Amino acid sequence: MEHVKTYNALELKHRNGDLIIEGPIRTSDLESYAFHEGLVAFRPPAQQHKALVGISKLPEGRIIIARNQDQIVGYVTYLYPDPLERWSEGNMENLIELGAIEVIAKYRGGGVGKALLEVSMMDDAMEDYIVITTEYYWHWDLKETKLNVWEYRKVMEKMMQHGGLEYFATDDPEICSHPANCLMARIGKRIEQEDVQRFDSLRFKNRFLY
């Protein structure tokens, strides 16, 4: 499958400084921008910046960023699922995962996450993919936001809906380990029914065991 990436961008007015939301960002541009020290949700900032650069080099890898001048203050990533996860077991070339979305505290609450998802889906090539995201409560910044798991889950669902992602049921053990965890997905307009069925078989691997 050919992975086509068409750049899109928009300007977002924000009380703490206007932002450019853009991508899929080129590796060279990603390397040239500073990475805000507040982007610590998944690993130390320098390591996360390096990880994003690596993703941007993958054929399917997509990085959409939010930047204030030359500093990245938010991002969302898309790539194939981890080989150790069930979502990779179908070897589906047209299934990619929204692997991470993060915005620094200073810019939360201003529609930055929504804009990252909206710019992501401006690319017509996204209609050739099933896009999934697995939401786990232990990745959520409950301390900083002062939200409980259900309030945060509601915020995440509403934000993901701006990218066209909807709730999908699954029997995945890790997702089922806590009721606040969830699977969300967006089925591209050009996805064949056969691939929808393959996705369904990944969602419910144990349906015949009950």
UniProtKB/TrEMBL annotation:
Domain N-acetyltransferase: 23-189
CDD domains: NAT_SF (cd04301)
Lineage top rank: taxon: Bacteria
Pfam family, one: Acetyltransf_1
InterPro entries associated with the record: AcuA, Acyl_CoA_acyltransferase, GNAT_dom
Protein name: GNAT family N-acetyltransferase
Lineage, top ranks: Bacteria, Bacillati, Bacillota, Bacilli, Bacillales
